Amino acid sequence: MRLSSKEALTAYLFIFPTLFVIFVINFYPLFRTLYLSLFRKIVGTEEIYIGFKNYSYLFSSDVFWIVTLVTIIFTALSVALKMILGLFTALVLNRPSKLKGILRSIVLIPWAIPIYVSAYMWVWLYNPQLGLLNMLTEALGLGTFYWLQDYPMFCVVLSYVWRTFPFVALAILAGLQSIKQELYETASIDGASPVQTFRYITLPHLKSLFLILITLQVLWSFGEFVTIWILTAGGPGNATKTIPIYIFELAFTSQDLGLASALSIVALPIFLILIVIVMRFIKE
What we know:
Elements: H1 5-36, E1 39-40, E2 48-49, H2 53-59, H3 62-93, H4 100-112, H5 115-126, H6 132-139, H7 147-150, H8 152-177, H9 181-189, H10 194-222, H11 226-231, H12 243-253, H13 257-283
Antiparallel strand pairs: 1-2
Protein backbone atom coordinates (compact mmCIF):
# COMPACT_ATOMS: atom_id res chain seq x y z
CA MET A 1 0.00 0.00 0.00
CA ARG A 2 1.41 3.38 -1.03
CA LEU A 3 1.46 6.23 1.45
CA SER A 4 -0.03 9.59 0.63
CA SER A 5 2.26 12.61 0.44
CA LYS A 6 1.07 13.80 3.85
CA GLU A 7 1.61 10.39 5.45
CA ALA A 8 5.05 10.04 3.87
CA LEU A 9 6.03 13.51 5.10
CA THR A 10 4.84 12.62 8.61
CA ALA A 11 6.87 9.40 8.52
CA TYR A 12 10.01 11.24 7.42
CA LEU A 13 9.52 13.80 10.20
CA PHE A 14 9.37 11.00 12.77
CA ILE A 15 12.52 9.26 11.55
CA PHE A 16 14.49 12.46 10.94
CA PRO A 17 15.72 12.80 14.58
CA THR A 18 17.05 9.23 14.48
CA LEU A 19 18.76 9.77 11.14
CA PHE A 20 20.25 13.03 12.42
CA VAL A 21 21.68 11.33 15.52
CA ILE A 22 23.12 8.52 13.38
CA PHE A 23 24.71 11.06 11.06
CA VAL A 24 26.24 13.04 13.92
CA ILE A 25 27.58 9.97 15.70
CA ASN A 26 28.93 8.19 12.64
CA PHE A 27 29.73 10.70 9.93
CA TYR A 28 30.71 13.90 11.70
CA PRO A 29 33.78 12.29 13.37
CA LEU A 30 34.80 10.88 9.98
CA PHE A 31 34.52 14.25 8.23
CA ARG A 32 36.27 15.99 11.13
CA THR A 33 39.11 13.47 10.98
CA LEU A 34 39.42 13.91 7.23
CA TYR A 35 39.49 17.68 7.71
CA LEU A 36 42.19 17.57 10.41
CA SER A 37 44.33 15.22 8.31
CA LEU A 38 44.93 18.14 5.91
CA PHE A 39 46.28 20.41 8.66
CA ARG A 40 49.23 20.58 10.98
CA LYS A 41 47.44 20.59 14.30
CA ILE A 42 49.35 20.29 17.56
CA VAL A 43 47.27 20.47 20.73
CA GLY A 44 47.19 24.06 21.97
CA THR A 45 48.20 25.60 18.62
CA GLU A 46 46.30 26.90 15.62
CA GLU A 47 45.51 24.74 12.61
CA ILE A 48 47.87 25.27 9.66
CA TYR A 49 46.77 23.98 6.28
CA ILE A 50 49.44 21.72 4.75
CA GLY A 51 47.44 19.72 2.23
CA PHE A 52 48.56 16.11 1.88
CA LYS A 53 51.90 16.49 3.68
CA ASN A 54 50.72 14.37 6.61
CA TYR A 55 49.99 11.52 4.21
CA SER A 56 53.31 12.04 2.45
CA TYR A 57 55.12 11.86 5.77
CA LEU A 58 53.35 8.64 6.74
CA PHE A 59 54.08 6.84 3.47
CA SER A 60 57.75 7.86 3.62
CA SER A 61 58.09 6.76 7.26
CA ASP A 62 59.57 3.36 8.07
CA VAL A 63 57.54 3.26 11.28
CA PHE A 64 54.27 3.40 9.34
CA TRP A 65 55.13 0.35 7.25
CA ILE A 66 56.39 -1.57 10.29
CA VAL A 67 53.21 -0.74 12.19
CA THR A 68 51.06 -1.80 9.22
CA LEU A 69 52.88 -5.13 8.95
CA VAL A 70 52.60 -5.71 12.70
CA THR A 71 48.86 -4.97 12.54
CA ILE A 72 48.34 -7.45 9.70
CA ILE A 73 50.36 -10.14 11.49
CA PHE A 74 48.49 -9.61 14.76
CA THR A 75 45.12 -9.67 13.00
CA ALA A 76 45.92 -12.76 10.89
CA LEU A 77 47.30 -14.77 13.82
CA SER A 78 44.48 -13.77 16.15
CA VAL A 79 41.69 -14.55 13.69
CA ALA A 80 43.22 -17.86 12.61
CA LEU A 81 43.77 -19.07 16.18
CA LYS A 82 40.33 -17.94 17.33
CA MET A 83 38.63 -19.76 14.48
CA ILE A 84 40.64 -22.97 14.95
CA LEU A 85 40.28 -23.01 18.74
CA GLY A 86 36.64 -21.97 18.54
CA LEU A 87 35.82 -24.72 16.03
CA PHE A 88 37.61 -27.38 18.09
CA THR A 89 35.87 -26.24 21.30
CA ALA A 90 32.46 -26.17 19.59
CA LEU A 91 32.93 -29.71 18.26
CA VAL A 92 33.81 -30.93 21.76
CA LEU A 93 30.86 -29.14 23.36
CA ASN A 94 28.50 -30.49 20.70
CA ARG A 95 29.21 -34.10 21.68
CA PRO A 96 26.68 -35.75 24.03
CA SER A 97 27.89 -35.43 27.61
CA LYS A 98 26.45 -35.13 31.12
CA LEU A 99 28.94 -32.32 31.76
CA LYS A 100 27.84 -30.28 28.74
CA GLY A 101 26.35 -27.46 30.83
CA ILE A 102 29.38 -27.21 33.09
CA LEU A 103 31.81 -27.24 30.16
CA ARG A 104 29.92 -24.44 28.42
CA SER A 105 30.04 -22.36 31.59
CA ILE A 106 33.81 -22.93 31.88
CA VAL A 107 34.36 -21.90 28.26
CA LEU A 108 32.45 -18.67 28.89
CA ILE A 109 34.69 -17.59 31.80
CA PRO A 110 37.35 -15.78 29.68
CA TRP A 111 34.64 -13.90 27.78
CA ALA A 112 32.91 -12.89 31.03
CA ILE A 113 36.05 -11.46 32.64
CA PRO A 114 36.34 -7.66 32.11
CA ILE A 115 38.97 -6.80 29.54
CA TYR A 116 41.15 -4.81 31.95
CA VAL A 117 41.09 -7.57 34.56
CA SER A 118 41.99 -10.13 31.90
CA ALA A 119 44.89 -8.04 30.60
CA TYR A 120 46.40 -7.42 34.04
CA MET A 121 45.97 -11.08 34.91
CA TRP A 122 48.17 -11.94 31.92
CA VAL A 123 50.67 -9.28 32.96
CA TRP A 124 51.03 -11.17 36.24
CA LEU A 125 51.28 -14.55 34.48
CA TYR A 126 54.11 -13.23 32.29
CA ASN A 127 55.98 -11.58 35.18
CA PRO A 128 59.62 -12.87 35.21
CA GLN A 129 59.85 -13.03 39.02
CA LEU A 130 56.31 -13.68 40.29
CA GLY A 131 54.48 -15.05 37.23
CA LEU A 132 52.93 -18.50 37.19
CA LEU A 133 54.44 -19.33 33.78
CA ASN A 134 57.99 -18.90 35.05
CA MET A 135 57.16 -20.89 38.18
CA LEU A 136 56.18 -23.76 35.90
CA THR A 137 59.22 -23.45 33.61
CA GLU A 138 61.56 -23.30 36.63
CA ALA A 139 59.89 -26.36 38.15
CA LEU A 140 60.46 -28.19 34.86
CA GLY A 141 64.10 -27.10 34.79
CA LEU A 142 63.66 -24.85 31.74
CA GLY A 143 64.83 -21.67 33.45
CA THR A 144 63.36 -18.17 33.57
CA PHE A 145 61.85 -16.42 30.57
CA TYR A 146 61.25 -12.72 29.97
CA TRP A 147 58.05 -13.39 28.08
CA LEU A 148 56.95 -9.88 27.15
CA GLN A 149 60.48 -8.87 26.12
CA ASP A 150 61.52 -12.01 24.24
CA TYR A 151 58.18 -13.17 22.76
CA PRO A 152 55.96 -10.06 22.70
CA MET A 153 53.79 -10.93 19.70
CA PHE A 154 53.21 -14.48 20.92
CA CYS A 155 52.24 -13.22 24.38
CA VAL A 156 49.88 -10.53 23.11
CA VAL A 157 48.14 -12.86 20.65
CA LEU A 158 47.79 -15.62 23.27
CA SER A 159 46.26 -13.22 25.80
CA TYR A 160 43.87 -11.72 23.27
CA VAL A 161 42.79 -15.06 21.79
CA TRP A 162 42.19 -16.58 25.23
CA ARG A 163 39.78 -13.78 26.11
CA THR A 164 37.88 -13.64 22.84
CA PHE A 165 37.68 -17.19 21.43
CA PRO A 166 34.60 -18.20 23.54
CA PHE A 167 32.41 -15.96 21.38
CA VAL A 168 33.55 -17.85 18.28
CA ALA A 169 33.11 -21.21 20.00
CA LEU A 170 29.53 -20.51 21.08
CA ALA A 171 28.59 -19.08 17.68
CA ILE A 172 29.91 -22.16 15.91
CA LEU A 173 28.21 -24.40 18.49
CA ALA A 174 24.89 -22.74 17.66
CA GLY A 175 25.61 -23.38 13.97
CA LEU A 176 26.38 -27.05 14.63
CA GLN A 177 23.14 -27.54 16.52
CA SER A 178 21.18 -26.10 13.61
CA ILE A 179 22.36 -28.90 11.28
CA LYS A 180 19.76 -31.65 10.94
CA GLN A 181 20.84 -34.88 12.59
CA GLU A 182 19.24 -36.86 9.76
CA LEU A 183 22.13 -35.81 7.52
CA TYR A 184 24.66 -37.36 9.90
CA GLU A 185 22.56 -40.50 10.27
CA THR A 186 22.34 -40.87 6.49
CA ALA A 187 26.08 -40.37 6.13
CA SER A 188 26.72 -43.00 8.81
CA ILE A 189 24.49 -45.50 7.02
CA ASP A 190 26.36 -44.82 3.77
CA GLY A 191 29.64 -45.61 5.53
CA ALA A 192 31.10 -42.09 5.58
CA SER A 193 34.09 -41.59 7.87
CA PRO A 194 34.11 -38.81 10.52
CA VAL A 195 36.49 -36.81 8.32
CA GLN A 196 34.19 -37.15 5.29
CA THR A 197 31.16 -36.25 7.39
CA PHE A 198 32.93 -33.14 8.67
CA ARG A 199 34.11 -32.12 5.20
CA TYR A 200 30.92 -32.71 3.22
CA ILE A 201 28.20 -31.98 5.79
CA THR A 202 29.49 -29.86 8.66
CA LEU A 203 31.75 -27.40 6.81
CA PRO A 204 29.33 -26.58 3.95
CA HIS A 205 26.56 -25.81 6.45
CA LEU A 206 28.86 -23.56 8.47
CA LYS A 207 30.34 -21.68 5.52
CA SER A 208 28.07 -18.63 5.82
CA LEU A 209 28.60 -18.54 9.57
CA PHE A 210 32.37 -18.69 9.09
CA LEU A 211 32.18 -15.75 6.67
CA ILE A 212 30.32 -13.63 9.22
CA LEU A 213 32.55 -14.70 12.11
CA ILE A 214 35.82 -14.09 10.29
CA THR A 215 34.64 -10.68 9.11
CA LEU A 216 33.72 -9.73 12.67
CA GLN A 217 36.97 -11.09 14.07
CA VAL A 218 39.03 -9.17 11.51
CA LEU A 219 37.13 -6.02 12.49
CA TRP A 220 37.65 -6.53 16.22
CA SER A 221 41.25 -7.76 16.00
CA PHE A 222 42.27 -4.90 13.69
CA GLY A 223 40.97 -2.39 16.23
CA GLU A 224 42.22 -4.10 19.41
CA PHE A 225 43.86 -1.65 21.77
CA VAL A 226 43.45 -2.42 25.47
CA THR A 227 45.15 -5.82 25.62
CA ILE A 228 48.19 -4.67 23.63
CA TRP A 229 48.52 -1.38 25.49
CA ILE A 230 48.39 -2.94 28.96
CA LEU A 231 50.74 -5.81 28.13
CA THR A 232 53.41 -4.11 26.03
CA ALA A 233 52.25 -0.57 25.09
CA GLY A 234 53.36 -1.47 21.57
CA GLY A 235 56.88 -2.51 22.58
CA PRO A 236 59.53 -3.57 22.86
CA GLY A 237 60.46 -1.14 20.14
CA ASN A 238 57.75 -1.50 17.50
CA ALA A 239 57.32 -5.27 17.93
CA THR A 240 53.64 -5.05 18.92
CA LYS A 241 52.81 -1.51 17.83
CA THR A 242 49.60 -1.82 15.82
CA ILE A 243 47.81 1.00 14.03
CA PRO A 244 45.46 1.80 16.98
CA ILE A 245 48.47 2.00 19.32
CA TYR A 246 50.33 4.26 16.88
CA ILE A 247 47.29 6.53 16.49
CA PHE A 248 47.04 6.81 20.28
CA GLU A 249 50.73 7.71 20.56
CA LEU A 250 50.48 10.38 17.85
CA ALA A 251 47.32 11.90 19.31
CA PHE A 252 48.03 11.78 23.06
CA THR A 253 51.80 11.43 23.41
CA SER A 254 53.04 13.55 20.49
CA GLN A 255 49.73 15.49 20.52
CA ASP A 256 49.89 15.71 16.73
CA LEU A 257 46.19 15.53 15.87
CA GLY A 258 46.79 16.17 12.17
CA LEU A 259 49.13 13.21 11.72
CA ALA A 260 46.96 10.99 13.93
CA SER A 261 43.93 11.91 11.79
CA ALA A 262 45.83 11.11 8.58
CA LEU A 263 46.78 7.69 9.95
CA SER A 264 43.16 7.04 10.90
CA ILE A 265 42.05 7.81 7.35
CA VAL A 266 44.82 5.64 5.85
CA ALA A 267 43.84 2.76 8.16
CA LEU A 268 40.34 2.61 6.65
CA PRO A 269 41.30 1.30 3.17
CA ILE A 270 43.83 -1.10 4.76
CA PHE A 271 41.03 -2.55 6.86
CA LEU A 272 38.64 -2.73 3.88
CA ILE A 273 41.28 -4.51 1.77
CA LEU A 274 41.72 -7.12 4.52
CA ILE A 275 37.96 -7.70 4.65
CA VAL A 276 37.73 -8.09 0.85
CA ILE A 277 40.64 -10.56 0.77
CA VAL A 278 39.08 -12.65 3.55
CA MET A 279 35.65 -12.70 1.90
CA ARG A 280 37.04 -13.65 -1.51
CA PHE A 281 39.17 -16.40 0.06
CA ILE A 282 36.19 -17.92 1.92
CA LYS A 283 33.85 -17.72 -1.09
CA GLU A 284 36.36 -19.62 -3.19
